[in-house]
């Protein structure tokens, strides 16, 4: 019996660069909760940003933020993945060396950037609307690093192989959406975060459904008893999934209609 749904946001629930969750999706999540099925927003986005996206029901769902580096249920942090500081500083240097991208640093208190690129600043503050502070240098931040993210408006095709080769075996380097390469602590991913949440809620993985579209979703898709890759997912993602769908909303509509019959 399905007891929990975990879904990615960008490219999954949020299609075609959408920056708002549809009213019907909000209704479906609450309808399913009333039928005993919980919902988890699982994203590379910040916790505060996810709460903004789900504002009408922000206290009714659980969160896997920062690509699994932070798992929160009812305001309680169940798990966090911290990047070792010296490695984090090396990554920041490497991003500067690569040069064809901008950098965003996530900490539990919020996010930081030191970019002077107007396009990146506008994207972060006006499009995705992250909780973000401008600083002179990210290396001056002394809070624990949850995630470091490199953004290229040219896409990840060249950037991802560069960083994956540079840091192979030392840290998780994953593509997140079409613009981002994320660095997250070893052992931190959406799958481990979901596993921690399921254990806390005493729910078995076989009773979970997951949705995703990128390689940062793979561990979560593999863990869930049933999983859906989006039809426009990155090449190869369907291999890790049980099904393929055009719409999370359509699957949840069918689930809501069938539960309790």
TrEMBL record:
Q: Which GO terms describe its molecular function?
A: magnesium ion binding; phosphatase activity
PROSITE patterns for this protein:
COF_2
Which superkingdom heads the taxonomic lineage of this protein's source? Bacteria
The protein's matches in InterPro entries, at most eight in alphabetical order, are given as: Cof, HAD-like_sf, HAD-SF_hydro_IIB, HAD_sf
**SUPFAM superfamilies cross-referenced by the UniProt entry:** HAD-like
What keywords are assigned to this protein?
A: Hydrolase
Q: Which GO terms describe its cellular component?
A: cytosol
Q: Which Pfam families does the UniProt record give?
A: Hydrolase_3
PANTHER family, sorted: 5-AMINO-6-(5-PHOSPHO-D-RIBITYLAMINO)URACIL PHOSPHATASE YBJI-RELATED, PHOSPHOSERINE PHOSPHATASE
Which NCBIfam families does its entry note?
Cof-subfamily, HAD-SF-IIB
Name of the protein in question: HAD family hydrolase
């Amino acid at each position: 019996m399905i007891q929990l749904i975990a879904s990615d946001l960008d490219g999954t629930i949020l299609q075609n660069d959408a920056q708002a969750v549809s009213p019907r999706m909000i209704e479906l999540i609450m309808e399913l909760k009333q039928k005993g099925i919980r919902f988890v927003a699982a994203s590379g986005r910040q916790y505060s940003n996810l709460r903004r996206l789900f504002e009408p029901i922000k206290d009714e769902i659980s969160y896997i933020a920062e690509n699994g580096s932070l798992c929160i249920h009812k305001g309680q942090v169940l798990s966090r993945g911290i990047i070792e500081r010296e490695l984090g500083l090396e990554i920041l240097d490497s991003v500067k060396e690569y040069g064809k991208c901008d950098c965003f640093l996530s900490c539990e208190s919020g996010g930081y950037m030191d970019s002077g690129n107007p396009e990146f600043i506008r994207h972060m503050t006006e499009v995705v609307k992250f909780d973000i502070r401008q600083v002179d240098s990210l290396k001056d931040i002394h809070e624990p690093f949850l995630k470091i993210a490199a953004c290229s408006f040219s896409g990840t095709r060249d950037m991802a192989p560069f960083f994956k080769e540079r840091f192979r075996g030392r840290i998780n380097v994953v593509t997140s959406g079409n613009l981002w390469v994320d660095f997250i602590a070893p052992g931190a991913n959406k799958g481990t975060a979901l596993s921690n949440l399921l254990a806390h809620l005493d729910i078995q993985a076989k009773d979970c459904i997951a949705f995703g579209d990128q390689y940062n979703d793979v561990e979560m898709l593999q863990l869930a008893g049933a999983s859906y890759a989006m039809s426009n997912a990155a090449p190869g993602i369907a291999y890790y999934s049980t099904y393929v769908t055009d719409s999370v909303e359509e699957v949840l509509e069918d689930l809501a209609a069938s539960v309790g019959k």
